[in-house]
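lol forgot to send this yesterday, sorry. C-alpha cells for the thing we talked abt
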C-alpha cells in the first residue's frame, strides 16, 4: 500500500524540476497525476519518466483558454481531485534599468495572472478538504539583484495564498505556499545568457547559509507535507531555502 493510494493531483509546470519531482514522489506512493508543460521536449521526457500513472498535457499557464481546456480535461480524467500544485512559472534576471515592458508583462502574466486563474478554474473540481499549494520564492521577501519584476510576481502569489485560503475555508480546502531558495533545476539557465546565469548561481550559492543549492526532491517533500500532512495549516508559506530567508 502506498502512502498516496487513491490521491489525484494536478501539477502545472510539472514536466521538469520541482513539479516533476513532486509528480514522481506521488506516483511512487500510489498517486495519480496530471502534469502540464509547454516545451515539446519536456512533455515527451515527462511522459517517458512518469509512465502510465501520469497524464502529461500541453498547456500554457498564461493562457486562459488553455486553462479552460485544462479544467475540462481534469474533469474528464479525474472528475474530482485532491491536490492542485500551481508550480508553473518563469524567471527573468534583468537589471531594473534594463527591464522592458514586454518582459515585465510576461513575468506578471505567467507567474501571477496564470496562477490566479488556474486556482479559480480548477478549485471547483477539487474534493472538499483538499489542498492547493503555490510556488513562491525567497525573492518575495529579499531584495535580490536582477529580480525586481520576478520578485513582484512572487509577492503577488504570497498574497494570493492568504486570500484563497480565506475564501476556500468553507469547503475545507487549505491553501499554502512553498518558498524555495536556490534549487538545482534548469530554470536559471533557461532565463538568462550563460554569463548572467553563472553569476546569479554563484551569488546565490555564496549567499546561502548552507552554501549549496537545494534539490527538487527536497522541495517536493515540502509540497506533499503541505498538501497531505499539514492539516491544521492554511494561508502559510513554508521556506525551503537553506535558511536564506531566515538567517
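and heres what i got for the seq, position by position
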Amino acid at each position: 500500500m502506498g502512502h498516496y493510494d487513491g490521491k489525484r493531483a494536478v501539477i502545472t509546470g510539472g514536466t521538469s524540476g520541482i513539479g516533476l519531482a513532486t509528480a514522481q514522489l506521488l506516483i511512487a506512493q500510489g498517486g495519480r497525476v496530471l502534469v502540464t508543460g509547454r516545451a515539446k521536449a519536456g512533455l515527451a521526457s515527462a511522459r517517458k519518466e512518469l509512465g502510465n500513472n501520469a497524464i502529461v498535457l500541453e498547456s500554457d499557464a498564461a493562457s486562459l483558454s488553455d486553462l479552460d481546456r485544462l479544467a475540462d480535461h481534469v474533469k474528464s480524467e479525474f472528475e474530482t481531485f485532491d491536490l492542485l500544485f500551481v508550480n508553473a512559472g518563469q524567471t527573468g534576471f534583468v537589471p531594473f534599468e534594463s527591464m522592458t515592458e514586454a518582459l515585465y508583462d510576461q513575468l506578471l502574466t505567467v507567474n501571477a495572472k496564470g496562477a490566479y486563474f488556474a486556482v479559480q478554474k480548477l478549485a471547483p473540481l477539487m474534493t472538499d478538504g483538499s489542498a492547493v499549494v503555490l510556488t513562491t520564492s525567497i525573492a518575495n521577501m529579499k531584495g535580490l539583484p536582477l529580480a525586481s519584476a520576478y520578485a513582484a510576481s512572487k509577492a503577488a502569489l504570497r498574497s494570493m495564498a492568504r486570500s484563497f485560503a480565506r475564501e476556500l475555508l468553507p469547503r475545507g480546502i487549505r491553501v499554502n505556499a512553498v518558498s524555495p531558495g536556490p534549487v538545482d533545476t534548469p530554470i536559471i539557465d533557461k532565463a538568462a545568457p550563460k554569463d548572467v546565469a553563472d553569476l546569479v548561481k554563484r551569488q546565490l550559492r555564496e549567499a546561502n547559509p548552507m552554501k549549496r543549492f537545494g534539490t527538487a526532491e527536497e522541495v517536493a517533500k515540502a509540497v506533499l507535507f503541505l498538501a497531505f500532512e499539514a492539516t491544521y495549516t492554511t494561508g502559510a508559506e513554508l521556506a525551503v531555502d537553506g535558511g536564506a530567508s531566515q538567517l
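DSSP finds eight helices and seven strands in the chain. anyway ping me if u want another try
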